[in-house]
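[step 3/7] fold_predict: job queued, chain A
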Amino acid sequence: MKKIKVLGVIATVVTIFFIAQALVIQWSAPSAIADSSKDYEYLKLFTEVLEIVKKNYVEEVNTKDLIYGAINGMLRNLDPHSGFMPPDAYKEMKIDTKGEFGGLGIKIGIRDGVLTVIAPIEDTPAWRAGIKAGDRIIKVDGEPTKDMTLFEAVKKMRGPKGTKVTITIMRKGWKEFKDFTIVRDIIKIKSVRYKVVDDGIGYVKINQFQEHTADELAKALKALDEKGIDSLILDLRNNPGGLLRSAIEVADQFLPPDKLVVYIKGRSGDKTEYYTRGKRKHYDWPMIVLVNYGSASASEIVSGALKDWNRAVILGVTTFGKGSVQSVIPLSDGSGLRLTTAKYYTPKGISIQNTGIEPDIEVKLIAKNGKGHPILREKDLRGHLPNEQLKGKKEKSKKESKPVVVPVKIDEKEDIQLQRAIDVLKSWRVFKKKVA
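[step 4/7] structure written:
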């Protein structure tokens, strides 16, 4: 068993392709295929089929496309979080991990089949150029975006600082398109937001666990401390996860040194433990962690550690339930392999695979009139890994009479989970005075 205090493992994260971002660590690629005679027989069969297809298929085929397709099919047979990334996707993943890239500064999506601006990021080239939420992107550098994938659009709009890109916009109320020529700049995506939500109550929202998240959090906590807060709400709702190292460093700011945050265990049964090490100041304010069905992976590691050490009250609904670790293995042609290699466990040795972190105080958010989107958890994904701690038992599964629909976005005044957290912290102050 290894006890790890110095985090020498560099992790990477998958961003736009899965609802739950994989908790991943880098890995050295295996040097050779296991020399099993059975393995070679199957490889021979694969080669036979490849040659037959190349020679006899009705149209000419690209060998690389066939190989990539075969690899994709092989990994799809494993679990929902293992996968193959072609060179472009692998490169994009590494860029997103850093939270910093050359581009315009807009969040985009596909709405009604059209490439659409979700929102410009404040103080970026797109924001300064006047791009607005809801704008439809008709062309990028003269190329129509119809049938263009989201990935292709992102690739076209990103680029080196100082270079130009022209996007053709159609806006509601306009009679004709308009071209915007924008100079790319370095876009830094902040993963941490903070403010004082009530008298003496601080609020920190972590959107994703990136390379710089722990540093951003340290600055946020220092600023809130200087404002004189006496309690804290940490919001991990809809945070799909990210870097293992980042999760440890976030927990490090709320737990004293030498506290176990999480351990991982692979097929061999060997355990690797990750401890806080007191690198940064840690704060001991009364604390509530907000979680929901979209809190996954690294979010579950942090909330699980704080719950097991009785450091915070967990409020909301049961989390996503992703308790597996993915290793990212670079391949020889610049592509990458994302492979599930271990499961992780909370300090008390609990696997949350398919079950999630259960809140201390359950508070549900339900969409009004059914307008929203249905929830999805790990146990709903096809091919998900089982939870070995539940062998002989039935996995907890609250069957709903109809799908639970939650709001896509909610105003702070209608956010009953946040308001309940504020009320609990205020109540704590009252009780503390009464027993003093």
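[step 5/7] annotate
The longest helix spans residues 37-56.
The chain has nine helices and 23 strands.
exit 0
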